Amino acid sequence: MSSRINSNGIVLGIKDGLALIQPTNSKLPNRNCFVTGGPGSFKTQSFVVTNVLNERECSIVVTDPKGEVYEMTAKVKEAQGYEVHVINFMNMSVSDHYNPFDYVRKDREATTVANTMVAAKNDPKHKDIWYNAQLSLLKALILYSIYEMPIVKRNMSGILDFLQEFDPEQDESGVSGLDEQFLKLSKSHPARRAYELGFKKSQEATRASIIISLLTTIGDYVDQEVADFTSNSDFFLSDVGKRKIALYVIIPVMDDTWEGLINLFFSQMFQELYSLGAENNSKLPQPVIFLLDEFPNLGRFDNYEKFLATCRGYGIACCTIIQNITQLQEKYGREQAESILGNCGVKLCLGNVNDTTAKYFSELAGKTTVKVQTSSKSTSKSSKNDSSSSSQNFSYTGRNLINADEILTMDENESILIITGKYPIRLKKAKQFELFPDITDTYRCNQSCYEREIAREVLEFREEKRLNMRSIYILMKSKRNKKRMRKNCKK
C-alpha cells in the first residue's frame, strides 16, 4: 500500500512538492480545523478522503454524505488495523445499531434526549403549551422505560407500544390507563414526578391533542427499519476513545428527517468521550479526530464552541467542514459563529466560496505594504529651444495581502491556509488520487454490503456491568427510608 506521505497528522495541502501536515503533537493552541469549499472545490477528495487514508494513530469519526468515503477507504482502514463501524442514517438496514436510551443514566440526560427529539420536529424558538407538553410527556416516558421496562423495551419502539397499550383518556373517576401506570410508582420516582409535573396537569380536553402532537413528533420511529436500528446499540460510543476505530456516519444530503437523531448521536458521543476522559485524568486512552463534512446537516449543537475550546485537552481534534461561512451564521447566529471560528487554530479555504467567505479570508489574511512608483514629465518651450524634465517618486501604501476577488477567482488546484499566529500560505490541494495513487480503486467496497456484527456481548455487558437505574433508585429509596427511621428513633 504505497503513499507519498510519510508523516501522520492532518494533511492541509502541498507546498513546494511536500505535504504540509499538522502533527498530533502540534504546538498550536488547538488542533481544530475550519475548512470551507463550495461544490467542485475537491473538499472530499483533497481533505476528507486524504486525511482518512493518511491517519494511522487516531480513531476517526467521519461524516459521510452519500457513503462515498466509506466505499473508498473502509477496506484500507481495516488493512491498517482499524476496527470499522458504520452508522447509516440513509439506509438503516445496512448499519450498526444505535439506541440513544443506552446513554440515559441520569434524569437530565433524559431531558436532553427529549429536548433534541421534540426540537427536531417543532420550532424551539416558539415553545408554546403544546411544545412543552410534548417535552414533559416524552421525558416521563423515557424515564419510565429506563427505570421500569426490561432492557429489550428501553427504546423508542417500547415507548410507542406503551402509549398504544394504555389509554390516555380519563374515566369517570378522572384517571386514565396511562395515569394508572405512573401512579403505581412511588411519589419520589423520577418518571412519576416528571409525569405529574407535566402531562398529568393538562386539562382532559387537551390530552388527546398532546398525545397526537407527540405521536407526530416521534411517528417516524414506527417504521420497522427505524425501530430495529434504534432497538439497541452494537458498540459503545466511548469505544472510539479506547481503541483505534474508523466510524463512518453516513448522512443523507437532501433529507433532513433524521437531523434530530443525527444531532443527538454526536451530542451523546461528545459527552461519552468527555466522561471517559474524566475517568482517565482528562485524557482519552485513544486520541480521536472528527472530520465533520457538511457540518450544517448535523443540526445545531448548543455548546459546540465550548467543545472546540476544551477538546484538545482530552486528545480530540475536530475539523468543521462547510461550503461557506454563511451556512454557519444561519445555523448559529453571527456571534456564536465567530466564536466557533475563533476556536479553530487552522482555517483552510478550498475556493468556490461565496462573497461573505471570500471577504472573511481576505480580512483574516491581513494587510501588506506595497511600493508604488509615480513619474512625471514636464516640457517648456522658448523661442530658441524646447526643454523637458522628468521626475520619479516612490511611495508606500497598504493593501490586502489577498483581495476577496482573488479568492473568488482562485485556481481550482489552489487553497489558502491561515494558521493562528502565522502568515497566510497559498497551497496546492492534497488530492487523494495523487498522493495515494490507485489505493481507493484497489480497495473499493460497496456500502450496501456492510454487515453488522450482532454484538450480544455488548448488551450482556451493559446489563451486567452498567449500573441499572432501577437498582440505583431502589437503593436510594432504601437509604432515604433508613435516614427517616433514624430520625424518628432520635425523636
TrEMBL record:
It is found in: Cell membrane. Residues 375-394 are annotated as: Disordered. It comes from the Bacteria. Its main location: membrane. Residues 375-393 have a biased composition (Low complexity). Keywords: Cell membrane, Membrane, Transmembrane, Transmembrane helix. SUPFAM superfamilies: P-loop containing nucleoside triphosphate hydrolases. GO terms for cellular component: plasma membrane. It is a multi-pass membrane protein. NCBIfam families: conju_CD1115. Belongs to the VirD4/TraG family. This is Conjugation protein.
